[in-house]
Amino acid sequence: MLLAHTFSYSAVKVDNTSIILLLVIFLSPFISAITKIKYGDFEAEIDPNEVQKIKREVSAQAANSNEPAQNSEIEATIDSISALVESDPILALAKLRIELEKALNRLFRMTHKEDKSKRLVSPMQLIHVLSSEEILPKDIARTTREVMSICNRAIHGEDIRKQDAESVVESGASLLIKLQFYAGNYVLEPIETAPIDKGSVDEYWEAQYRVTSIVPLVDTPYKNIRVLDQEGLDGFLEGYDEYAEFIVDVKKLEPKESA
Questions:
Q1: What is the DSSP letter of 136?
Q2: CA dist., res. 69 & res. 63, Å (int)
Q3: Is residue 204's pLDDT more than 50?
Q4: How many CA atoms lie within 13 A of 56 on its CB side?
Q5: Of 106, 111, 86, which Cα lies nearest the Cα of 176?
Q6: How many helices and strands in the chain, by DSSP H and E?
Q7: pLDDT of 202 above 60
Q8: Is the predicted pLDDT of residue 231 greater than 60, yes or no?
Q9: Which residue among 20, 109, 122, 149 is the one 20 to 30 A from 245 at the CA level?
Q10: How far apart are the C-alpha atoms of 37 and 96, rounded to whole Å?
Q11: Residue 124 confidence class, pLDDT cut points 50, 70, 90
Q12: Whole-number CA gyration radius for the chain
């Protein structure tokens, strides 16, 4: 074909399309080795080094602090994303991005309950505010921003290797657990703290408590009332998030009431 084009051999027609097809045939054995496609300033590739950098950051964060416990809801979310990445990495990254945004919004709501008017339009703004107010540690904020950026780029067409998508999901799962932990800390933060004496400690420890809960998700909702000591309270509250009922009242009983 090259000779026919050079010497203008009329029996063989060589045009631009033929030359492009010839180049495609020539390059096809090397396509799998091409990791970056550049056109002008646009590069349609997620560098594996970016993914490894995030993985190292998450590992360092885990080494510097104990990994928070995860509840059944976040565990189910992480399991579903991890399963999805095996069959559809891009969809898994899209789901991871959604869950990270939900976690950031929850953390913001928990820490800005009095600020009803403030509306943030993007997760990156949420990260900036939470980090600048020292609600979210700066290293966690940076890694969350990097993970969400990779998710966005993959969703919008940049190529990512399957093993890199799996690594991003693993890193994102660790971030989800941490964000849940930070939000939980603010939910459980006391509104008031006051000192008590040793006698009061003993009194509360030995007391019994009237615990009222309701079971709403049945055809006929109903109320449960229990009388529990401290050991009973510990047993009841262990795994409370898995119950189909929720506590509406806890009252310390006077000795004559619990007799």
A1: S
A2: 15
A3: yes
A4: 6
A5: 106
A6: 11, 5
A7: yes
A8: yes
A9: 109
A10: 26
A11: very high
A12: 29
Q: Tokens for 174, please give them.
A: 């660790």
pLDDT at position 31: 44
The amino acid at residue 8 is S
pLDDT at 58 over 60: yes
SS3 of 193-217: the string is CCCCCHHHHHHHHHCCEEEEEEECC
Distance CA(212)–CA(224), nearest Å, equals 6
Residues β-bridged to residue 251: 210
Could you tell me how far CA 146 lies from the centroid of its own chain? 13
Determine the pLDDT at residue 45.
78
Question: What are φ and ψ of residue 91, in 5° steps?
Answer: -65, -35
- Check residue 99 and give its pLDDT: 95
In the chain, the DSSP E strands lie at 38-39, 42-43, 209-215, 222-228, 246-252
Query: At which residue do the structure tokens 């969809």 appear?
Result: 91
